[in-house]
């Protein structure tokens, strides 16, 4: 079983993935970290030096590689991963995967991003007062892909252990 966590940046995918990994005793993989190790460069450096198109191609290659593996794991995607290169179709058509959309409000995402904006290439150059509108528009554009997940999990006003517990319960009660 491959458990795929998706959603907008700062929706908690990595934090939930790590907690879920502990609960289910399954390895956790962060797709961005996986890409960074394969390219020996940070996501920001890849965006700056090679551009977003290059990054999206590598991201899709790494996702395919992971989905084709035989082992079980929990995978957190980058915020844009489901929206490019037919990646969501790959996830949907993978017989051994379940996907979870961590649905998080614009307000919550803005509160999380405000102190780490410079570490996020997509929003690094956005003025903080313009961030809510940018995020709302981005989520609107991406929601078509996010909503294709097997399950939607609302994350607002929940702590990491609650969200991971909710996902674990779904997985463990799956017929």
Q: Any idea of the CATH topology? A: Rossmann fold
CATH architecture assignment: 3-Layer(aba) Sandwich
Strand content: 5-15%
Number of domains: 1
Helical region count? 8
Rg on CA atoms, Å:
15 Å
Name given to the CATH homologous superfamily: P-loop containing nucleotide triphosphate hydrolases
How do the SSEs run, as a string of H and E? EHEHHHEHEHHEH
CATH domain class name: Alpha Beta
Spatial sequence of strands, sheet with the most strands = 2-3-1-4-5
Overall structural class, as computed from helix and strand content, comes to: alpha/beta
Shape: globular
Provide the helix percentage. 40-55%
Q: Which consecutive residue ranges, at least 5 long each, have pLDDT under 50?
A: none
Averaged pLDDT: 94
Number of strands: 5
> What kind of sheet is the major sheet?
5 strands, parallel
* Head-to-tail CA distance between termini: 13 Å
What would you note in describing this structure?
It is a single chain. With 175 residues, the chain is α/β, with parallel strands linked by helices. The chain has a single domain, classed as P-loop containing nucleotide triphosphate hydrolases (Rossmann fold). It contains 8 helices and 5 strands, in the order βαβαααβαβααβα. The chain has a 5-stranded parallel beta sheet, sandwiched between helices. Helix 2 crosses helix 4, helix 3 packs across helix 4 and helix 6 crosses helix 7. It starts with a strand and ends with a helix. The mean pLDDT is 94.
């Amino acid at each position: 079983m491959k458990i795929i966590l998706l959603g907008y940046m700062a929706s908690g995918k990595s934090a939930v993935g790590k907690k879920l990994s502990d609960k289910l005793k399954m390895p956790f993989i962060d797709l961005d970290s996986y890409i960074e190790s394969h390219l020996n460069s940070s996501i920001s450096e890849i965006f700056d030096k090679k551009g977003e198109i290059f990054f999206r191609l590598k991201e899709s290659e790494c996702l395919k590689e992971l989905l084709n593996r035989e082992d079980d794991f929990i995978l957190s995607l980058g915020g844009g991963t489901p929206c490019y290169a037919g990646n969501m179709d790959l996830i949907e058509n993978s017989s051994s995967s379940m996907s979870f959309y961590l649905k998080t409000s614009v307000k919550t995402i803005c509160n999380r991003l405000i102190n780490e904006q410079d570490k996020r290439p997509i929003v690094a150059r956005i003025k903080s007062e313009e961030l809510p509108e940018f995020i709302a528009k981005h989520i609107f554009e991406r929601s078509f892909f996010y909503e294709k997940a097997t399950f939607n999990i609302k994350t607002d006003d929940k702590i990491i252990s609650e969200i991971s517990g909710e996902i674990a319960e779904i997985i463990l009660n799956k017929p």
